[in-house]
Each structure stands twice: as C-alpha cells, then as structure tokens.
Request: fold
Amino acid sequence: MRNLLFFLFTISVLPSCEEKCEINHQSPHYYTYTGTIAATNNSSILSYDDRILICGNMQTESIVFKIEKDGDIVWRSICDAHETTLLTGLAEHTDQTIFVCGVTKRNNPEESSDILLIQLQANGDTMWSKTYDVGNSVRGSRIVCSKDQNILIASTTEDPVSNSFSDYSIVKTDRDGNELWRRSNHGKPR
Reply:
C-alpha cells in the first residue's frame, strides 16, 4: 500500500516539477557526494534562493548541505546532534532560516526516541537544537513552516502495547523552538 501511494504521489508531482524546475531532458545531470550523506532517512527541498537543501545521515554524523542546481556545494554543515540522531526532514522560512527535524536518543540512549528540532542560519551555522518527548518511540518526523511563522513537526510513534507504528504526534513550536502545543492519538481509535 505504501509503495502504491508513493507511486501515485510521484506520478502527480512529476508533471508539475517538469514545468517549474526546468528539467533539461537532453542532458541530465547526476551528482554524488562520496561520504557525505546516506541513502536513507534524508530529505531535500528547493530553497528560497533557488538552490537545493539536503539533510541526512552518514554513520554517526547528521549532515545538512546546500548545493547549486549544477551540483556545486555552497556549504556543508555537520550538526552536533548525537550519534543516535537521524535527520529526516527540513523546512525553510522566507528569511532563509532553516529548520531541520529528526529523531534522537541523545537525552536517554536506553529509552524511546524523542523528536529533534535544529535551527540553522542561512549559511548553515547551527543556532540551537531542542528535543520533544512525545511519550513513545518516534519514527519518521517531517516538518513544515506555517503561515503564522511557526513550526509544525509530525511523526509516527511506536505503540509499546501493539508494537506498531500507527500512532501519530504533532508538535507546534514558535521560531525559537518553544512548544506551543502538541496533539497525538496514542491508543485512541481513528
């Protein structure tokens, strides 16, 4: 089912991407960055300055970098997040402040994962990082900047009773990472 949804999403997004992203079908460009980023749990977005922001993980490092559309690296930032951290999503405010989310066990390595939020300056320098304990082990966090200039982080959580990843948690913060509210359906029927 997940593969079918991904396939349908891809089919619906690619035609609009061809119009907006000016894809040159005559000479495609592929770039690899050896040792820079892993192939799992990463995310990328088109930045407000028309470059590409990418976050991901390489062994015990959490990495964010910005590249030109021709593949040249603008900057690369290793976030000092903890060896148990996985960066999974990123968003950018109109002022080019970057917010990266993920999951981490940096507070309690033996316990369940927490949601991680990192704020970067437009040049990739880390401003701060904060964690949010939502009760159960977190998986697959994603992030968006809201119209009211706040941050929304969504994730699925593992229910310890059923050992499934069907519950969700949403945390809303202000631009400084201060929690405004949280919602979840832990153990509630949908």
About this structure: The helical segments are 2-20. The radius of gyration is 17 Å. The chain has one helix and twelve strands.
